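Re: Re: ligand-bound prediction request (bumping)

Still looking for help on this. To restate: I need the protein modeled with 3-phosphoglyceric acid bound, output as structure tokens. Inputs repeated here so nobody has to scroll up.
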Amino acid sequence: MKKILVATEKPFAKVAVDGIRKIVENAGYQLVLLEKYTDKADLLKAVADVDALIIRSDKASSDVIEAGKNLKIIVRAGAGYDNIDLVAATQKGIVAMNTPGQNSNAVAELAFGMMTYIARNQFQAGTGGELRGKKIGLHAFGNVGRYVAEIAKGFGMEIFAFDPFLPKEAFEKAGIKQLESVEELYKTCQYVSLHIPANEKTKKSINFELLSKMPSGAVLVNTARAEVIDEEGLVKMFEERKDFKYVSDIEPVCKDVLKEKFAARYFATPKKMGAETEEANINAGLAAATQIVNFFEKGDKTFQVNK
Ligand code: 3PG
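Reply:
Sorry for the wait, this slipped through. Here it is.
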């Protein structure tokens, strides 16, 4: 009997786990659950005899992959797969997948929660600002970017996007303005919302040079990854631009400096919570389980990311 391990340091909602169990058991497989683990040794032990692994931001590093002697597939129930050692997986012939789009709306809604929060002085007394009429720039126009654009329309914002991997029709279809360069995006938009993955090209790419191009009243919204920010440049931006604000779904390494010196212009969630909704858990968790069953039963490799 095939064993499917769900290893989630940050667990799915119970309703999502129940749904995953149903899919797994209906296929005649066994579900193994490892939740809220604090010791990597527990993950190494749990993965030892399973055929498939479902994770969230949990790290499928080379030692985890090595420990999974029977492992054939790893599914990241979510979008970003920077937590999977793809080289190690490929070397062992393990298929790695994500579940694109499944938790995107949750992330997009959080972006607006943080935008309104910071625009209204973190809900403290005093005069704030409105989103209506402001220019928002989407740095990458993937699944989350699309939901952000949809919501931004409701807020009456003017929407721009930069994404070198998409044809112009994609922007036209969404009714938003395409910008030709990343510099232009930052120069044009008071709000910039990050939707880029963390990879060798993007890490530390959001630097002072780029941020300093933003117009007055600049707000950077990060529901992507902490690693894409050049934190030295971020601190410099806070120091040199008294109008600059930063909201993030991931605490930066320099969080103590930001909290101490720029508390009124900075907010970060204590633990990544963009995808922390029951709906997103159900969507991503059930998609992951279904993808695993389809892989074993039909050889379906849709959503493989280590091709
Ligand atoms: C993702 O890449 O899907 C998001 O960052 C959500 O991550 P999480 O599942 O760890 O909340």
